[in-house]
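At this stage, I wrote out one protein, both as residues and as discrete backbone shape codes, and that material follows here.
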Amino acid sequence: MTDHKPQSCGERGTVLVTGTTGYIGGRLVSHLLDRGWRVRCLVRSARKLHRRHWASRQQVEVIEGDASDETAARNAMDGCVAAYYLIHSMMVAGSEYHERDLHIARVFANAAEAANLRQIIYLGGLGETGQQLSEHLRSRREVERVLCEGKVPVTVLRAAMIIGAGSASFEILRYLVERLPIMVTPKWVSTQSQPIAIQNVIHYLVQSLETPETLGRTLDIGGPDVMTYNEIMRSMATERRLQRRLVIPVPVLTPRLSSLWIHLITPLSAQIARPLAEGLRNKVICGDNEANLLMPQRLLTVQESIADALGQLVAHDVETSWSDAGPIPGDPDWAGGTVFTDSRAMKIAASPAHVYAAACRIGGSEGYFSASWLWRLRGIVDRLVGGPGLRRGRRDPESLGFGDALDFWRVTGIEPERRLELRAEMKLPGVATLTFEIEPVGGASSKLTQTARFKPKGLLGLLYWCAVLPLHSIVFRGMLRGLARSAEARHREIVNQSTGATGSGSESIAQ
């Protein structure tokens, strides 16, 4: 751990940022660094930050710990001048996120007081007060109240929909508009909202740290446009050059039904979609313009925000995504129970680097190299039973990092040019992993071992394995051969570029 002595008044100090594996926090850090601040990140898994472009900078310190543990929070704040509270527990099942958020907020406020912080900065949600406030927004307000009950001044920024490539709200909007020319929607499509671009949010978060007038203030932040969700969807259709969408609002669609519909059409799970859908029924517009008077900037319109976000998607330049914050389980405990294994190996006429690169390209738009219809069918079934399905895709088409979401998998092990492990997040009666292990075998060849493991849970797990076993020779053998073809093609391309040759044959030998 670095020296935690407070910085002198003439220097930028150290600030604690929580939620750095998530959508907002992952983008905030680099902007703080550019302003000269030192940043300390409190995360449950430090490995999830390895692929952040700012993680290796000298001004960044990463501490592993749980923000719900007061000792861990207090140690993380030691020597800091301020802390960002960017924690939200919607990934927790059911309504448990509400109780967990309140507990973490109390721990955070107490730790901040013990550490003698100058300021806490909290990003909450806009919304009119009263009994009609959704459970999701009410939870945000109660977290705000708990933080403000402490002795450390809190700067509260309240935002409505945040428009940016990879944000949960933006992904819901994009998928609904792209996939449904006719939409039967709840009444909330006529609710007014004041969206804000992600870059404008980041500006306010950074400037709140450097603007003393924000101490102890609650500030509404939003863009220049006040629009209904219907109008926002039309703006998305216009920007995507799609025909105007027909929207039919009906009164019978409850938040629960809406969340299930969002689950089926978009990459978001019903678990995350429900609190968001509940919040859409509340009018969310700014009460004043104080934030922009204190921290001036040019606010992007909804159309500009959507265009910018879509441009990042097309350029594969999505810095963070809503799926980044998913929990990373530990390595499965394979001991003490039956584990079924399907292991296949192949010698490939390509270097370990090219084989590894091919393995890292699976999923998303690339697919799984074989039996595409079976993978699509499995994805559809998974969505129907409440899993993520294939629609979650991946953040980058070429590279993977620890903790990345990949369709209904998540990366839980990664050693460049040697090993890649994926753990299934699909709905299963057991625990499943898919591992690729690569070893050089002399010359420019490699051996790729592909291993699927499944630890069943009860009789249903055993029946599941027996049901899918006949398909393995189609799915996994085809995947292995497809990976080999992809790696060898890339290898030949590189060789031809360096030698000027027209290409030569290569051979994959099944073991």
Remarks:
- Residues 141 and 378 are 40 Å apart (CA to CA).
- The radius of gyration is 24 Å.
- Residues 1-10, 330-336, 502-511 have pLDDT under 50 and may be disordered.
- The longest strand covers residues 430-440.
